[in-house]
Amino acid sequence: MKNLITAAAISSLCFAHCALSADYQDLDKFYAGAGFSHNRIDLSSVGSRDGKANGFQVFGGYDYDQRNGIDIAFEAGFIQSGEFFDGSSEDADGIWGAAVIKKDLPEIKDKLSGIARLGYGLGGDDGLLMGFGAQYQLNPKAFLRLEYVNKDLTQSYQVNAVYHF
C-alpha cells in the first residue's frame, strides 16, 4: 500500500507539470492504463532458483509532440509482481517512470504501432528498465498493448489496456 501511495504521489507530480503548462486542448494528451503481467526473476547468478509470478500494473502517461513520424510520451506507474516463490515474500513491486516512443506501422496494419521504452524503476527491482512491444488501436481512444520489459533481475511479459482522455 505504501508503494501505491508513493507511485500515485510521484505520478501526480510528474503529470501536474504537464497539466500546468498545457492548454485545455492538450488534455487529450493524457492517458491511463492497466494490465496484467507474467514476471520472471533471474536468481541463478546468486545460486538460487528462478521464480515466476503473475501480477498487475497501473500507469499514467502524457503524449508529447510527434517528431519525424515518432510519437514521444512519458509514463509513470506502479507494478505489483506477485510473490516469486511459494510461501515467501520475494517480490519486485515498485514504481517506475519511462520515456516511450511509438511508431505507426501502416505498411503492416493501419492500426498497429511498435513501441519501445527506457526508464528507471524504484522498489523491489531498482534500476534501469527497457522494453519493446506492439500497440493496436481498438477505437480512437482505446488501445491494447503487448510488451516485454526487462529490468535488472526481472523480466515481465505484459498485456495492457490504454485509454486516452
Task: Give an overview in words.
This protein has an 8-stranded antiparallel beta barrel with strand order 1-2-3-4-5-6-7-8. The protein has one domain: Porin (Beta Barrel). It is built from 1 helix and 8 strands, in the order H-E-E-E-E-E-E-E-E. It has one helix at residues 2-21; strands spanning 30-41, 51-67, 70-80, 94-104, 112-123, 127-139, 142-150, 154-164. With 165 residues, it is mainly beta.
Topology at a glance:
Elements: H1 2-21, E1 30-41, E2 51-67, E3 70-80, E4 94-104, E5 112-123, E6 127-139, E7 142-150, E8 154-164
Antiparallel strand pairs: 1-2, 1-8, 2-3, 3-4, 4-5, 5-6, 6-7, 7-8
The figure for the number of domains is 1
Distance between the termini: 27 Å
Order of helices and strands: HEEEEEEEE
Could you say what the CATH architecture is? Answer: Beta Barrel
Radius of gyration, CA atoms, in whole angstroms: 16 Å
Main features:
165 residues, mainly beta, Porin, 8 strands, 12% helix
Summarize the structure.
By secondary structure, the protein is mostly beta strands.
